[in-house]
Amino acid sequence: MSSTNVQCAATEAPSHRSYFHVGGHYRDTGQDESQHVMTGQMYVEKLIPIDGVKRPWPLVFIHGAGQTGSNFLNTPDGRKGWASWLLDQGYMIYLIDQTCRGRSSHHLSNGPTITYPAELAEKRWTACRDYHLWPEAALHTQWPGSGRIGDAIFDAYYASTVPSLADPAAEQVLMRTAGACLLDRIGPAILITHSQGGTHGWLWADARPDLVKAIVAVEPAGPPFQSTVTKASNAKRFGITDAALVYHPPVAMTPDDERPLQTESYQAANGSTYTLQQEPARTLANIHSVPVLVETGEASSYAAYDEFTVQFLRQAGVRVEHLKLAEKGIHGNGHLQFLEMNNLEIIELLEKWIAKIA
User: Which residue of 116, 159, 222, 329 has the fewest CB atoms within a 10 Å radius of its CB?
Assistant: First the structure.
């Protein structure tokens, strides 16, 4: 195995850095009722541009499964990351580690964790064009290096991955509480979510709609009512989340293995089956007023089904735009586009949309 010590230039933007934790509660250790530990807390890193904040709303990054907030600082081959580039544009940045992950301590009472093997990362994210698991994978050209075990850049990336809670609903409940605490503390913000972190963006906006100014959802967990990872029949019971969302008219709570929403399946042009609400559809009572941008890379597996997430959101009354990178002349991106060779071209495009809000 090659060294993960990839030589890096000093590419991070200069900033004032601080950190804190939000949320969390004490519980006994599970072995001694007189001894207590804290659980459910979320680590938050605050970055302020060295020349001062020039934008009205801070940006909060919510990373995906198996990842931490370090995704957005710089790339595994030492180039500037999205957060650093945005600091240069005058944005205040908040980077989190999801609850029970990374610097947000996990306790056994939260449930078991899962770790994505390196081979899964190769097949789905970094070397997907070698495996042909979906048609668009052949277009993947932007990962730096081979994307395979033993490549120094891949090894540096995979070394940064961490275990995640195995139960998505339990994780979402913890993250909704911690996210509401964060927004209560920092005030209005724009959320930038990725992959599994997309579920938390919806839940934070549901919990604090007045404090979420907009959501940029980079390939959010989808498609509706399905999991491409676990294949569980009860996945995303509330359409785009496993934990409860507020709908109008309200939904009746059902057992965990049943959907509280009435659904209907459709056949897509690409041959896949997707699921939406039956008409007349309920609206997302709290999220419908929050502007949303869903962004999709050309070569990602999400290219096959992000459109279904967009359709679900529109059906539920959400003001959503769908940005397909290929239609803007940005080609070859997989799911980890913030680490890929043209990452700054992508964030520059996303920032143009953000600037209309901020």
Answer: 329
* Catalytically active residues, by annotation: 195
Question: Considering only 137-141, 144-148, 260-264, which range has the smallest mean pLDDT?
Answer: 260-264
Cβ atoms 198, 320 nearer than 8 A: no
Those residues with Cβ within 8 angstroms of residue 255's Cβ, 6 or more apart along the chain or in another chain: none
Q: What is the pLDDT of residues 179-194, one digit of tens each?
A: 999 999 999 999 999 9
Amino acid at 255: P
Beta carbons within 8 Å of 31's beta carbon, 6+ residues apart: none
Distance between CA 2 and CA 156 in Å, rounded? 10
Backbone angles phi, psi at 275, to 5 degrees: -125, 135
Query: Torsion angle, CA of 281/292/143/84, rounded to 10 degrees?
Result: -160
The answer to whether residues 96 and 45 touch, using CB atoms and an 8 Å cutoff, is yes
Alpha-carbon span 18 to 186, nearest angstrom:
13
Cα 1 to chain centroid distance, Å, stands at 30
Residues 6+ apart with CB under 8 A from 167: 111, 112
204: which 2 tokens?
A: 């934070």
Helix, strand, coil distribution of the chain in percent, nearest 5: 30, 25, 45
| 185 token code pair | 């503390």
Question: What are the beta bridge partners of residue 46?
Answer: 18, 94
